[in-house]
């Protein structure tokens, strides 16, 4: 009897609880709507993604934040997250049960917005490629596994070029003209071109040394025993004599001689041309006009008629140069290297390939700015880049005299021969996943 009375008392209680459940559920929904909101869009979480700091955001909101800021940090507390943010399955299922209708409406709005779809795709691609790269790193098949062999090859190259025949040309570019021997004068004459072989005999016969070379003029070259009657040959010899008198040494005539005579400048130009070709060429115009800039311009933009490289270029040459300078600066470098194929066979090819790769990377960067509607930020980015390059150049000029020559040679040959290998990987990533590259 007691059990029956107990059952009778429980049934009304359960009925009362069931009758109150809709009100309790509605109150729970009212409370949970704020608790399940995203702190970016202040709406119900769609595909809630939990960061390492514990904050939750809609996945598309996190993708939009990442694309605009280019930072892996929480939009609320600014703490950086690690790894690839995952969707919180428990939280997603809870919002599905509580706010199914609202989520269905929001998903339709998100799918209809192309900007959100593009950001989500870029977000997924970027971090998905990072995970794949990390997996390949663990297996040891990435480009980084080549660092040690590459470093070894750089050391071998430095040793080869430091002790090989390249350095044999360094004597005349560092030795004063007044101290040249007759053999060195003949060597200087032969470097002017194959035609200079015609006048080798008279210079040897007269035993012309550095002091006598500086005394030669147009009248002496016309008279016996030199008898240089060809006006073009005579003009070239006189022009080179003027350059030798002005410099006091032999001017560099190829890449290795230029590197030996201007070790710090060659290393600076090699790295600066990659980062900022227009600023570097402008630097040559301001501070190295006659010795480097004029030969560079005459080689890349030759005149219709034969013009000596020491003469100022014509307005047609300036117009062609300025167009290429503004639009395709790396093409100027490739054209310059192309003209030196006979002297630097493999080195010129490395430079040409690297110039093409850098042109592709620059074009991809401009395309990303246009596609992301951020082309208006280009002036600000150019100013920041200019300030950065000027600062780095100033620091380099201060620290250069204290850096060991062997270290500089390693950096020089690394940038010259192995930068194209790195740039190939960058170009492949840009072409396969253009939307994932940062600005």
Automatic annotation (TrEMBL):
Name any GO cellular component annotation.
endoplasmic reticulum membrane
Q: Which reaction does it catalyse?
A: S-ubiquitinyl-[E2 ubiquitin-conjugating enzyme]-L-cysteine + [acceptor protein]-L-lysine = [E2 ubiquitin-conjugating enzyme]-L-cysteine + N(6)-ubiquitinyl-[acceptor protein]-L-lysine
| A Gene Ontology molecular function term of the record | zinc ion binding
SMART domains noted in UniProt: RING, SAM
What EC number is given for this enzyme? 2.3.2.27
Under the heading InterPro entries, the entry gives: SAM, SAM/pointed_sf, Znf_C3HC4_RING-type, Znf_RING, Znf_RING/FYVE/PHD, Znf_RING_CS
Q: For this UniProt entry, what is the primary localization, expressed as one broad class?
A: endoplasmic reticulum
The keyword Hydrolase is assigned to this record: no
Which residue windows are transmembrane per the record?
350-370, 390-416
Q: Name one GO biological process term.
A: proteasome-mediated ubiquitin-dependent protein catabolic process
Sorted alphabetically, the keyword list is:
Apoptosis, Endoplasmic reticulum, Glycoprotein, Membrane, Metal-binding, Transferase, Transmembrane, Transmembrane helix, Ubl conjugation, Zinc, Zinc-finger
Function text? Membrane-bound E3 ubiquitin ligase that plays a role in several processes including apoptosis regulation or reticulum endoplasmic stress. Has anti-apoptotic activity, both for apoptosis triggered via death-receptors and via mitochondrial factors. Contributes to the dynamic control of IRE1/ERN1 signaling during ER stress by inducing BAX inhibitor 1/TMBIM6 proteasomal degradation. Promotes the activation of TGF-beta signaling by mediating the 'Lys-63'-linked ubiquitination of TGFBR1 which is critical to activate the pathway.
Quaternary state and interactors: Interacts with CASP8, BCL2 and BCL2L1 through SAM domain and also with HIP1, IFT57, ESRRBL1 and BCAP31. Interacts with NGFR; this interaction inhibits NF-kappa-B and JNK-related signaling pathways.
Q: Under which name does UniProt file this protein?
A: Bifunctional apoptosis regulator
């Amino acid at each position: 009897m007691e059990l029956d009375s107990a059952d009778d008392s429980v049934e009304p209680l359960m009925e009362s609880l069931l009758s109150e459940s809709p009100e309790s559920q509605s109150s729970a929904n009212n409370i949970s709507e704020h608790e399940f909101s995203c702190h970016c869009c202040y709406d119900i979480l769609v595909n809630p993604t939990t960061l390492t700091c514990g904050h939750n955001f809609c996945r598309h909101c996190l993708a939009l934040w990442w694309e605009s800021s280019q930072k892996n940090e929480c939009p609320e507390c600014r703490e950086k997250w690690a790894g690839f943010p995952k969707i919180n399955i428990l939280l997603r299922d809870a919002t599905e049960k509580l706010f199914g209708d609202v989520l269905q409406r929001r998903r339709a709005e998100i799918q209809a917005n192309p900007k959100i779809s593009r950001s989500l795709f870029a977000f997924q691609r970027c971090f998905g490629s990072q995970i794949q790269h990390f997996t390949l790193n663990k297996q040891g098949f990435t480009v980084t596994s080549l660092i040690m062999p590459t470093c070894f090859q750089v050391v071998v190259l430095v040793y080869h070029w430091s002790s090989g025949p390249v350095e044999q040309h360094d004597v005349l570019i560092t030795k004063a003209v007044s101290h040249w021997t007759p053999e060195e004068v003949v060597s200087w004459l032969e470097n002017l071109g194959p035609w200079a072989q015609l006048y080798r005999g008279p210079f040897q016969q007269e035993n012309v040394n550095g002091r006598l070379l500086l005394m030669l003029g147009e009248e002496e070259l016309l008279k016996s025993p030199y008898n240089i009657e060809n006006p073009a040959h005579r003009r070239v010899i006189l022009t080179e004599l003027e350059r030798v008198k002005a410099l006091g040494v032999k001017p560099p005539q190829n890449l290795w001689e230029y590197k030996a005579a201007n070790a710090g400048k060659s290393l600076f130009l090699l790295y600066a041309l990659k980062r900022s070709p227009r600023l570097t060429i402008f630097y040559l115009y301001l501070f190295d006009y006659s010795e480097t800039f004029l030969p560079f311009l005459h080689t890349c933009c030759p005149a219709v008629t034969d013009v000596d490289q020491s003469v100022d270029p014509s307005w047609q040459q300036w117009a062609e140069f300025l167009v290429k300078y503004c639009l395709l600066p790396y093409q100027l470098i490739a054209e310059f290297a192309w003209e030196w194929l006979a002297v630097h066979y493999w080195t010129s090819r490395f430079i040409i390939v690297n110039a093409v790769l850098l042109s592709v990377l620059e074009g991809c960067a401009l395309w990303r700015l246009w596609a992301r509607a951020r082309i208006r930020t280009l002036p600000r980015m150019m100013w920041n880049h200019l300030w950065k390059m000027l600062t780095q150049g100033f620091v380099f000029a201060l620290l250069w005299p204290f850096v060991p020559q062997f270290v500089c040679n390693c950096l020089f040959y690394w940038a010259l021969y192995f930068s194209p290998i790195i740039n190939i990987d960058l170009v492949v990533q840009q072409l396969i996943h253009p939307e994932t590259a940062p600005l």
